[in-house]
Structures are given as C-alpha cells and as structure tokens.
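SAMPLE LOG
Freezer: B-3
Tube label: C17
Construct: single chain, 171 aa
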Amino acid sequence: MIGPDYARTMARYNAWQNQWMYQACDGLTDAQREEDRGLFWGSIQGTLSHLMWGDLVWIARFDGGTGPDADLKGSMSRYDWAALMEARPALDARIAAWAWSTDDSDFEGEVTWYSMAVERQMAMPKALCIVQLFNHQTHHRGQVHAALTGLGLKTHDTDLPFMPDEVPEWR
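STRUCTURE (predicted):
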C-alpha cells in the first residue's frame, strides 16, 4: 500500500503547507482567526488547534512519544495562537523525523487504541493509520485554505506536483 517514500513525501508536504498557512494566519487579527467561519471546528484557530491535537494523537501512536493532553472535545480550544505558532514547527519536525526513520517494516501490522470518539477499542492496519495522519491534515488545512480565500488572502499552491524540492526552515 504505502511505505517510507510516501511518509517522507507527505511529511515534507505537511511542513510546506503549514509554513505558508501559519504565516498567512499570523497576519490575521485575533478576531479573524477566532470567528466562527462554519468550518467543522468553527474558526480557523479552532481548526488548527484540533489539527495540532490530531497530529499529536497519531504521531504518538507511531513514534511512542508524548500525545496531547486534551480530549477530542477540548481539541479545538486546547491551543491559543501563540502556542500554535510555537509548537507547530516542532511537531512538523517530529513528524519528519519519524518519517525519515521508517523502513518497510514500520508500515506492517496493526495499531490498536481506545477511541474516545466512539468509546470503544479500535484496531486498524498501521499503513491505513499512517494514511489517516496525512489525510486528516489535508482535510482540515483545506478548510482553513477556503476560509483564508474567503477573507481575500492570496493563498499558495497546495498541489503535490508544485512542492519545492527543499522545504525551507520555518521563519
């Protein structure tokens, strides 16, 4: 299904997209970031906070590191803007470090966890869970992208073929 090359490409894509998106969002007022825009998690900030939470949930399952300290219901309000701006580059680096440490065996087997969302034990193929990490990011960033476009901001390309060979460091 997938392997290390997929994870590495998607980790680069994640960092590339977050860099321009967070810079664009940083130029908004607090009120613009916090206004309910009809996104699944309400506001731009709520959506990015939920996405930070979700990335922490999934990467902790893959790298054995620390996960989030809030539950799903609290995910949209867990991180204020300053915390997101500080923590996002480090989380993107963590995702990239994990991706570059993988080999084919890291995509085999199952991941098991207790889901608070459906209140039951879950088990899924690990490769599918890895796809979920990156798919979840793309889904919610797409919502933020649409909100930024609606605010009249010029946004960047989001298509994989236009990803630069090297993703620059966060500014």
